[in-house]
Amino acid sequence: MTSYPDADLLVAVKPEDIATYLRASGWYEADHYNQATIWTHGPAGNETDVLAPPNNTFRDYPRRMIELLATVADVEQREPADVLQDLLSVQVDVQYIRTMPDSPSGTTPLHHGYQAVKGVHDLFLSAAASAHLPEPMAVLPSQKPPEAWDFIGGVRLGQTAPGSYIFRVETPLTGAGSPAGSPSRRVLDHLHLAMNSAHRAAADTDLPDGSRPFAEHIASGVSANLCEALSSIGALGNSAFEIKFAWAATLPMERPTPDLHFDTESISRIKKAGQYLRDLPAHREAQIEGRVVELRSYRPDKQGVVVIAGVLTTPQGRSTERVLVVLPNRYYELAHESHPGRKRVRAVGLVKTSGRQPELSAVTEFEVLED
Questions:
Q1: If DSSP codes are grouped into helix, strand and coil, which group holds residue 93?
Q2: In 3-state terms, the chain is what percent helix, strand and coil (to 5)?
Q3: Residue 85: partners with Cβ closer than 8 Å, 6 or more residues away
């Protein structure tokens, strides 16, 4: 027997959201009856009509809503409660993450559930960070852009559903009416692109070059962080999962976003790819300004190595670090003269931050600064 929610929940559906949902679902306005609108669905001669109530303050609004839900659910071959949930979410992007643990439908082992929730959080955070960084990165910085945390603050977990164990992730649209579009939608679009790229890379990892296909998709948002999050959702390779993107009816998606299925073999490959990407040398332009605190080595025919303690500036921000600096011979003497910490120095080059200590190489500028 079909059950319906209480009147308060039915009244919460706005008439304009009914129109938005029906229009996006293939219904069209056919006529009016008093103040209500008659919507029609289906081919000529086999149409189905439904009456959309005009005002949720009317006393018979809940009854009319029950009739509408029953008709739309019958046409869409769904449960009325699912249709109602969509009517309440016409301005919300929803991702359904269906995990497939070895447990009764609607349940998941506690540890797998914990890993999956953490993985979902890290997945959305990695997408938001990647979308707001000035350039793609194999390993995302530990200090995420403020915009990424703003995005995460708006994401919420909805009620789980039976069918293995399904997480419903809801992201209300932000700024959808602005000329620049919706910031939250751009992040989710970036997330689908990155996940789809990781999915394709996982299919190619049986090639001789192993996890290298993942590196070829860094520009599409694939990172070690994304791979680790996907691995967590899949219980580190012990459980398959799939994700479906359902877009807010008020802002239809312009490109196809097919469902993505990750089997256990793919998840195991993605897990290995996460470590592979972390081990890649990640060089980017940077500047260190501080004092020479250590002279490591010097070979007249090669280069000198010093340690500078100070402020490291990269495209991702500023931090206080002790940086290993590889200096061409022409700069080493200047560094030697400024040691130990007599004067401030500045060096510009390419920094690698994936090891134990940041390392600046390919130095193009080095100068002693006036205190």
A1: strand
A2: 35, 30, 35
A3: none
pTM: 0.70
Q: Which residues 6+ apart lie within 8 Å of 69 measured at CB?
A: 4, 80, 83, 84
Q: How many residues does the chain have?
A: 371
Hey, what amino acid is at 260? L
Sign of the CA dihedral running 101, 103, 107, 108: negative
Q: Which two three-digit tokens encode residue 358?
A: 């940041």
- Rounded-to-integer distance, Cα 4 and Cα 27, Å: 23
| Residues 6+ positions from 94 with CB-CB distance below 8 Å | 158, 168, 169, 170, 171, 245, 246
Q: Which amino acid is at 334?
A: L
**pLDDT tens readout for residues 93-119:** 999 999 998 888 888 899 999 999 999
Count of CA atoms in the C-beta half-sphere (13 A) of 332: 17
* DSSP code, position 53: P
Measured in whole angstroms, the distance separating CA 276 from the mean position of its chain's CA atoms is 20
Which residue shows structure tokens 């303690």? 309
Q: Using an 8 Å Cβ cutoff, are 16 and 91 in contact?
A: no
Question: What are the angstrom distances between the C-alpha of 232 and each of 77, 130, 195?
Answer: 33, 19, 14
Question: In terms of DSSP bridges, do strands 359-368 and 317-328 run parallel, antiparallel, or are they unpaired?
Answer: parallel
Amino acid present at 71: T
Q: What is the largest CA-CA distance in the chain?
A: 93
pLDDT in tens, 9-49: 899 999 999 998 999 888 999 888 888 899 999 888 888 99
Nearest partner of 115 among 197, 230, 34, judged by Cα: 230
Number of H helices, E strands in the chain: 11, 14
Cis peptide before 5 (omega within 30 of 0): no
* Calpha distance 199→93 (Å, rounded): 21
What Rg, from alpha-carbon coordinates, does the chain have?
A: 28
Task: Kindly state the tokens that stand for 264.
Answer: 């256990």
Kindly state the tokens that stand for 282. Answer: 């990640």
SS3 64: helix
H/E stretch holding 202 reads helix 183-203
